[in-house]
Amino acid sequence: SKRYSITLLPGDGIGPEVISVAKRVLNLAGSLEGIEFNFQEMPMGGSALDLVGVPLPEETLSAAKKSDAVLLGAIGGYKWDKNEKHLKPETGLLQLREGLGVFANLRPATVLPQLVDASTLKKEVAEGVDLMVVRELTGGIYFGKPRGFGTNEDGEEIGFNTEVYATYEVDRIARVAFETARKRHGKLCSVDKANVLEASMFWRKRVIAVAAEYPDVELSHMYVDNAAMQLVRNPKQFDTIVTNNIFGDILSDEASMITGSIGMLPSASLGSTGPGLFEPIHGSAPDIANQDKANPLATVLSAAMLLKYGLGEENAAKRIENAVLDTLNKGFRTGDIYSAGNKLVGCKEMGEEVLKSV
Amino acid sequence: SKRYSITLLPGDGIGPEVISVAKRVLNLAGSLEGIEFNFQEMPMGGSALDLVGVPLPEETLSAAKKSDAVLLGAIGGYKWDKNEKHLKPETGLLQLREGLGVFANLRPATVLPQLVDASTLKKEVAEGVDLMVVRELTGGIYFGKPRGFGTNEDGEEIGFNTEVYATYEVDRIARVAFETARKRHGKLCSVDKANVLEASMFWRKRVIAVAAEYPDVELSHMYVDNAAMQLVRNPKQFDTIVTNNIFGDILSDEASMITGSIGMLPSASLGSTGPGLFEPIHGSAPDIANQDKANPLATVLSAAMLLKYGLGEENAAKRIENAVLDTLNKGFRTGDIYSAGNKLVGCKEMGEEVLKSV
Ligand SMILES: CC(C)[C@H](C(=O)O)[C@@H](O)C(=O)O
Ligand SMILES: CC(C)[C@H](C(=O)O)[C@@H](O)C(=O)O
């Protein structure tokens, strides 16, 4: 039987609850496919800050690097919100992404027929939405230098950051995006602000250059302000979207809210080599932590992405995806996706139900 | 009788059609309030490129500077999309904003009861939305230096921009935002990405400092990715939003699409002294140019903002606003906001109807 080592990073808030469900689901799906997992839980985020004073302990990063894949719950909370930058949970996440070199962040936004009513969009606008945002994750304004605080020529205080992309950075994310589009419906929309920003003009130039390798994929370009509108106007027009780190942060969250069920949405962050990082797109939801109210399905589906994109174990991934659909079809709903006529369950019970269908 | 000089910049696409309606409406509303206008039409955008080879001729900028207010139609079109940066219509707009020093861009997004069905959002989510985005317009990554193209340490080509804010820039936009919130419902939400960007941490620090002058306004902070979600989830939670240039570009467009009727939405750009710049938020819509199909109401309402914010002529502004509401109540609709049971009209006829109600 095959063996994989998985680093689990439960993190903060509802993180430990949803990770514990996903771990059980992974174990079961694995065992049915002849796969064994070696799980190692490591501290990260606010809980690591409380424990050892940094948001990403060295031991956590090196364990993650040595494993075959990393599954993260969620990080952050009011408690650490006012911390200095290097002591913020979010900084730990950025260090983890950088440390693992996971430059390609895949964020699907799918409206399941079972949950179409959860969207604030009209049914006819929301139904059938099935798009993928491919976000550049280790470059751009998140990591660009110079950055910091200083004074300008007039002696005024300033705060500044640098948006910067190099050829290899755009080329590699573009390739992931074209490959992704090719496996989906063959349409790729590159989002930028090339009518104003040089970094975006450069981005567009490289995306067009890489497009020559993918003549079968239909490439279009859209300005980011228009993309933010089009996601509201007619999200179905999109198949695969590729964009930079900050625009991807904004647009993928907007797209996820359009589905109305962000408690359902997984993500995968991949590098060229080494383990991928898999996490739900929702946050740590400190308000409902430790109350057995969290929706574990985004993390369960992140585990499915881990199997598919991280380990190439498509069969085990399919088992989990189908189990989630079965559970929804049976009418089980956590509070965030509850609607009349369904069965309201907590995090654990939702986990039990998924396990029954794996 | 009072006299004001107004620079009209019809621009490209549907620009001339909507400006011509707004001019007639201004003339009539003015004459009924004892105001006389001196209009001067100047070239700008793509049409200026075609005419004199630059998107903002010097004569246009100096005429604009000398006038009491500037009313712009729309700029841009496929024809000039591939131009080099300094020959893009958009560059002319940025030069105009910078030249006039209009650092505060006010973009209301209001769902009128008459048009609630135009929104792609469910009625209960869209109805009653009435928010104002205060966008910083002459700073940040749009204007920050250094910017351009180059090579990095590894000899790789790069494209880069600088996001930078100085104390006076944040302070003055924050003051406009607090004043705006005070005249509305007293709630201000400052949107940033202070969990990642130093420029945002600085922004937040200054907004908090300025807040001390406005103890009656309730200030909150939100990360931009969350704001993009909340606008979809529950736009009614917002009263006034203040944010930087690029986030404001994205969020104000998202907010406008939430109303479902961007053909209705005006904007005002104000400086500390000198004339303000008023323009519809929609684009130049080259597809429907010269077909008498454009919705002139966003430009008519921009003329109302010109009267109110630019000239302090509240009565004349009210006349125009009421005339627009009357016209909608009578059921007149251009194609973009048409729904069954109403009367479909073209740009000119819509103008005639508004004139009847001024
Ligand atoms: C927590 C934060 C640093 C992070 C980001 O901005 O990338 C989050 O919003 C995300 O999208 O994963
Ligand atoms: C045309 C473009 C330069 C402009 C901007 O980005 O500011 C437009 O999108 C706007 O919002 O007015």
What does this structure look like?
Two copies of one chain form a homodimer. With 358 residues, chain A is an alpha/beta fold. Chain A contains twelve helices and 14 strands. Chain A has a ten-stranded mixed beta sheet with strand order 2-1-3-12-11-4-5-10-8-9, sandwiched between helices. The longest helix of chain A is centred in the N-terminal third of the chain and has 18 residues, at 15-32. The interface between A and B is large, with 62 and 62 residues.
Please report which band the strand proportion of chain A falls in: under 5%, 5-15%, 15-25%, 25-35%, 35-45% or over 45%.
Answer: 15-25%
Largest sheet of chain A: 10 strands, mixed
Structural class of chain A: alpha/beta
Taking Cα atoms only, what radius of gyration of chain A do you get, to the nearest Å? Answer: 20 Å
User: What would the average pLDDT of chain A be, to the nearest integer?
Assistant: 97
Largest interface, counted by CB within 8 Å of the partner chain's CB: A-B, 62 and 62 residues
Q: Uncertain regions of chain A: pLDDT < 50 for 5+ in a row? A: none
Query: How would you name the oligomeric state of the polypeptide chains in this document?
Result: homodimer
What's the helix count of chain A? 12
Instruction: Kindly report how far apart the N and C termini of chain A lie.
Output: 19 Å
